[in-house]
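Quick one: structure for this chain?
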Amino acid sequence: MPNAAVLKEKQAIVAQLAEKMKTASAGVLVDYKGITVANDTKLRRDLRTAGVEYSVVKNTLTKLAAHEVGFDAFDEHLNGTTALAISPEDPIAAAKILDKYAKDSGGAFTIKCGFVDGKVISAQEVEALASIPGREGLLTQLLYCLSHGPRSLAIALNAVAEQKAGGSAPAEEAPAEA
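Got it. Here's what it folds into:
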């Protein structure tokens, strides 16, 4: 049985972790057993740059924090080596970065599951989330549509108008009589 000071420290860790999960936009649990020190350092730098908090967590403490938040579905994934990436604001950032590392590792580094807006999601759903363009990509697509959409529509409408005015539209065939 741990002494009172150790127990109090663990309770504080659980409370802090539960609060981060509760207020986060998204998070991802990973199994990091096959990652090299160099890759781990690069991964941590990439996540930090994206505003994602990444830490190795004890499964028992994570399980307690997850239960506090209602993430009971984490239980089946809390075994072996576990790290947790929490994204306070961007729901896609952690998934994107970790999915890339998982794919590049050849199966040594794997995604266990995740959560988005208070809902636990599977590893496959994390991968799907990672395929969504990030904020900058979505803004670029929106700007492209706004700048090219009306022009393309105008060109198409003009072509239809010219076709109808010039009489070059294909004539409708009269039904054949027997």
